[in-house]
Amino acid sequence: MTKATQTLTLLVLTTGIWLTLLFEIVKVPAPLDQIVPTLPLWVIVSFGAYLLGTLGWNIFTFQDKEAAYHSLLKEIDEAKRDLKGRGVTID
Predict the structure, then answer these.
(1) What is the pTM of this model?
(2) Contact indicator for 32, 18 with CB cutoff of 8 Å
(3) Contact 39, 18 (CB under 8 A)
(4) Half-sphere exposure (CA, 13 Å, Cβ side) for 77?
């Protein structure tokens, strides 16, 4: 099963459960009955908060790679020399 199939299956399953609760096919207690319509918004906000937290943590723990930096500069210089040899002007 591919990741797309798993995601689609999970989405259909959770949407089906939410719709059965929303249209009261399955009865829920009164306090939960008021929460059910807002569940999709709560899921989206929670997912966004998780993504922002993950992004922030990855930026915070990012480490510079000096060797990769110098290797990239060397490759850029080689590409410039190759293009100059072929008659292409570079700034």
Answers:
(1) 0.62
(2) no
(3) yes
(4) 6
- Share of the chain residues as helix, strand and coil, in percent rounded to the nearest 5: 80, 0, 20
Q: What is the gyration radius of the CA atoms in the chain, in angstroms? A: 26
Query: 3-class SS at 83?
Result: helix
Per-residue pLDDT at 91 exceeds 80: no
Angle 45-47-52 from CA coordinates, rounded to 5°: 95
Task: Provide the token pair at 2.
Answer: 């591919």
How far apart are the two ends of the chain, measured CA to CA in Å?
A: 50
Q: How far apart are CA 77 and CA 83, in angstroms?
A: 10
Question: What is the chain's length?
Answer: 91
Strands (E) located in the chain: none
